[in-house]
Amino acid sequence: MPSTLPANYPPDLTASESERLVEVVKDWAAAHGLSVRPPATVVSAETDPVGILSTAVPVTIFPSPFPQICYDQGKVAQKAYNELYAAISQDEEFLAQIVKNIGDSDDFITELWKVHLKVKEEGYAQHLSLGLFRSDYMVHQTTPEADPQIKQVEFNTIASSFGGLSYQTSALHKYLAINEYALLEQPISQGQLTLPTNLSARGLAAGIKQAFIAYGHSATPHPKCVIFLVQDGERNVYDQRHLEYEVQAPPSTIPVFRLPFSQIKQQTHLAEGDGRQLLFSPPQLPKHTFEVAVVYMRSGYGPGDYPDASAWEARYHIERSAAIKCPSVLTQVAGTKKVQQVLATPPSDPMSEPSILRRFIGSDDGRNTRRIHHADDTIAALQRTFTNIYPLDNSTAGQKARAIALDEDRCQSYVLKPQREGGGNNIYRSAIPGFLKSMPEAHWGAYILMELITPPPVHNTILRLGKLEQGGVICELGIYGTCLWDQREKQGHGIVMNEQSGYLLRTKGDKSEEGGVAAGFGCMDSCALVGGGHAKNSGERHV
Ligand code: ADP
Ligand code: MG
């Protein structure tokens, strides 16, 4: 295995090489469904009324150099993260406190919590819970000589996307490494790149399949199915389709349907009796009804999906049903940035107070020493991935953070985050003081302040909408995790399945703050692992 890349990696391309690679990559992407629906700014609804057109996902021409040590660190931490978030989701008291701390100024979180309370009153009909998680990281390096480490950007518990496209991106780069790079004027010979195997779609699908089995036999006369709960007008549809096809891949014969969130009440109802089985009647197949075993949500993570009270009714309807939810409301709340902050903020007196992680990981009786040691290691591994995150509430830590956030100089190294998912919600650097001053102090507690991670930039070329963009880029690694557990247990007991399930590398130009591929800022990438941890060519070549 090579541990260093060629000094000129990734090589500069001649004009004709660029032309050829655009041709090769766009056709490979179309042939393999490395695609999205085109943005309306590129193809208008009038031009494509049936939505028949697709376009290649923005993608790097070369896999970006990424330190092996960091990639391994993320992979190793994932099972511990799965266990941690299962345990948080099981800890209603902790989550109730989180919601209280976020406060009434955040209607979205307040409404979500109300859904949980209402179902709890009646009693949950399903105790199994499925998590298809993704933990996102950036590389942090204190000095050029120091070993790089990964620091967590965020942990996703709902609609963790791109598992369907990332394994395809890994496959594209492998194809190019075998067939194209050796032909360049500055050739990269076969075997010079270390490209890890990435089975993200298969791994995530395995979680859905396991939940489908764990649901048991249908209790009604109807066959079981899986529902993908989606947004109207979704552009990232092929990412989801790849996952559907993996769930349906032989030898399994699992019916999978896409249900728009806005159609929940029209197309589903609960069975008669106490079991609250969720029954789904596909509108285009009027003779068929299915009992829904698993609801996999690729929607419902932001206020946009809940335009009125009936949308909240629909979420409640799903939550109280017997279907296994991915995620449940509790797991969704566990994924808030406030939880991430509470986990990352050290106790005010670390000498006398234990880490909050102790509450979720480790021995419940304190007698099993082997388990305690294992827990200590696990907690240490998780803590190594944390960066500084502060509350903005009235606490002592909150007061300190407020001083940083309002200071024109110190705020330059921070990002302010609300309790939202899906990109485009954060406030960066110099925009922070003005933003905070524009709202009542009573609302500040709904935000967290996070130190910006500044990875060593690398160099790459992105193919976006048929054009090549060359320059400095920043990479974000996502590690997928799949976990199925029983909500009635505590501290991560009751786990039926816990797997690390492949990775995502997302890359953006080093001038852009956000990294969402669908939002048009970032692109898909894969890792060319470099040993020793020092990403070659860092920082030197900007175009
Ligand atoms: P969302 O839930 O909207 O995806 P994230 O917390 O993942 O919110 O932030 C969106 C993007 O902003 C990230 O993908 C990353 O590119 C950038 N970002 C967020 N937090 C940090 C940070 N601490 N350091 C550097 N970049 C960050
Ligand atoms: Mg994110």
TrEMBL record:
<comment type="similarity">
    <text>Belongs to the eukaryotic GSH synthase family.</text>
</comment>
<protein>
    <recommendedName>
        <fullName>Glutathione synthetase</fullName>
        <ecNumber>6.3.2.3</ecNumber>
    </recommendedName>
</protein>
<keyword id="KW-0436">Ligase</keyword>
<dbReference type="InterPro" id="IPR014709">
    <property type="entry name" value="Glutathione_synthase_C_euk"/>
</dbReference>
<dbReference type="InterPro" id="IPR016185">
    <property type="entry name" value="PreATP-grasp_dom_sf"/>
</dbReference>
<keyword id="KW-0479">Metal-binding</keyword>
<dbReference type="InterPro" id="IPR005615">
    <property type="entry name" value="Glutathione_synthase"/>
</dbReference>
<comment type="pathway">
    <text>Sulfur metabolism; glutathione biosynthesis; glutathione from L-cysteine and L-glutamate: step 2/2.</text>
</comment>
<dbReference type="Pfam" id="PF03917">
    <property type="entry name" value="GSH_synth_ATP"/>
</dbReference>
<keyword id="KW-0547">Nucleotide-binding</keyword>
<keyword id="KW-0317">Glutathione biosynthesis</keyword>
<dbReference type="InterPro" id="IPR037013">
    <property type="entry name" value="GSH-S_sub-bd_sf"/>
</dbReference>
<keyword id="KW-0460">Magnesium</keyword>
<dbReference type="InterPro" id="IPR014042">
    <property type="entry name" value="Glutathione_synthase_a-hlx"/>
</dbReference>
<keyword id="KW-0067">ATP-binding</keyword>
<dbReference type="Pfam" id="PF03199">
    <property type="entry name" value="GSH_synthase"/>
</dbReference>
<feature type="domain" description="Glutathione synthase substrate-binding">
    <location>
        <begin position="225"/>
        <end position="334"/>
    </location>
</feature>
<dbReference type="InterPro" id="IPR014049">
    <property type="entry name" value="Glutathione_synthase_N_euk"/>
</dbReference>
<dbReference type="InterPro" id="IPR004887">
    <property type="entry name" value="GSH_synth_subst-bd"/>
</dbReference>
